[in-house]
Amino acid sequence: MQIRNHFFKKEFGQNFLRNKKVASKLVSILDITPSDLVVEIGPGDGFITQEIELITTNYIGVEVDSELIPSLENNFKNLKFLNSDFLKINFETFLEDNGYEKDTKVKFIGNLPFNVSKDIISGIFHSTTNLAADSASFIIQEEVSQSFVSKPPQMSPIAAVANIYAEVKKYETIAKKYFDPSPKVAGGMILFTIKDDIPTSAMNIEKLIKIGFSSPRKTLLNNIKNSNKYINVEDAFDKTGLGLNARAAELNTAQWIKLEKSLVS
């Protein structure tokens, strides 16, 4: 499915998917059930949308490009589309505003604009305080998808944060030729499964992670001390079982959670 004579907008990061097998897999790994609400971010010309419609009509497409909305509504008469910037959505009222119960399980999907993919994923993590986010399957920049699944002792900052909120699994690499227009880099398919036991202090842990990675060449201890946000840092390291020369990239999720708790107790 393609929209004729569409002028691709660079500011929206539009690189539409053009491989049916990839689209089908992106949908299948989300494991959609009849009770799920599927929220597609940037449906574009509906290439992925048509695969979703084969499974469910319990769907909301959020499209920032107003020129695409008429064609989407014409081609998918049983689906709902919002002309909106996903990054500006108020998740406190999103479900009720669109006729859904607040406890409706939400699954996100999309071929995300590479330039804002990390912001969108972060927004979904933070939405978990306001809605029952279950999982998200995305196509993002290949290099970023690899970074999301990095492990200690070479953990990336975005992986450290992501693992507070979700289990992360990387799927296949998607060649540039499978997009229109072709991007400068390949895409990567990734699945986030939101955890049931997200710590109540998740936002504070996230802030600590950012402090810990603020100067990668310095030890974690020095980065935390230099932030002037915590006291008795050495004692917290001792309680957590961390060496004073530990670096942020070496910590796993459990250690970040324990360290934050030790720093504020």
TrEMBL record:
Keyword line: Methyltransferase, RNA-binding, S-adenosyl-L-methionine, Transferase
Cited SUPFAM superfamilies: S-adenosyl-L-methionine-dependent methyltransferases (SSF53335)
Highest taxon in the source lineage: Bacteria
Residue positions binding S-adenosyl-L-methionine: N15, L17, G42, E63, D85, N111
Entries under InterPro entries matching the protein: KsgA/Erm, rRNA_Ade_diMease-like_C, rRNA_Ade_Mease_Trfase_CS, rRNA_Ade_methylase_Trfase_N, SAM-dependent_MTases_sf
SMART domains, per the entry: rADc
Domain Ribosomal RNA adenine methylase transferase N-terminal: 22-196
GO molecular function per UniProt: RNA binding; rRNA (adenine-N6,N6-)-dimethyltransferase activity
Keyword presence, Transferase: yes
This protein's record includes keyword Zinc: no
UniProt family annotation: Belongs to the class I-like SAM-binding methyltransferase superfamily. rRNA adenine N(6)-methyltransferase family.
Protein name: Ribosomal RNA adenine methylase transferase N-terminal domain-containing protein
Protein species of origin: Candidatus Dojkabacteria bacterium
